[in-house]
Amino acid sequence: MSVIDDRVSVFVSYSHKDEEWLERLSIHLSVLEREYKLDKWDDTRITAGNKWRDDIRVAIDRCDIAILIISADFLASDFIHHNEIPPLLKASEEEGTVIIPIIASPCLFSRKPELSQFQAINPPSRSLISMTKSEQEETFVKVAERLFELIRDVQSARENSGEDNPMPMEDFLDAKTSTKLVKIGDWIHDLEQRELIGSGPGSYLLSRRSFGG
Questions:
Q1: What is the per-residue pLDDT across 144-197, written as a single tens digit (0 to 9) for each?
Q2: CA distances (Å), 78 to each of 19, 82, 190, in order?
Q3: Do 196 and 189 contact (CB within 8 A), yes or no?
Q4: CA-to-CA distance for 75 and 119, rounded, in angstroms?
Q5: Cβ 184 vs Cβ 3: under 8 Å
Q6: How far apart are CA 122 and CA 140, in angstroms?
């Protein structure tokens, strides 16, 4: 989770063959991104030259919520099976990451207990492709409404735990002071988003300026 960013992070896992559903989901979540501090991440945010596997790993590590757009193509993807599902399941069990499946098309979702343990927005018998256009849009509204509730829950939990009271931004982002930080743990400096991102229970970030180093 980002040290300085109080946005609620959502990771979207999907097969590229289901891009049409990602596009509609993104449209419905745009209001939450603009007005309610939602940070939606999917692999379209990977920029040329980046180490894309690292980008995906960091996005999974920092997410509060994961949306799975599930189809036969999703279940058939070796990359998703080996690189996205295991860390998301671990995050759900250990950190309380919320996982929300959306059933895009008929598939063996109900035969995958590691996934079907999570309540899907729509039942497998009512996949998106079996719906009318209006029903599809209503389903994406349900996703957005659920995320709105979760945003409030996560923000409230942060306020109660004090996690949403970071050190001053200038201590971390200024080019002259960023080199004066003591980094312990797995930290990445995201230049595009102007964030210092840490993952893992042993990650700490200390300012030598503040601590006399």
A1: 999 999 999 988 888 887 644 444 444 445 544 455 455 545 555 555 555 556
A2: 18, 6, 28
A3: yes
A4: 17
A5: no
A6: 10
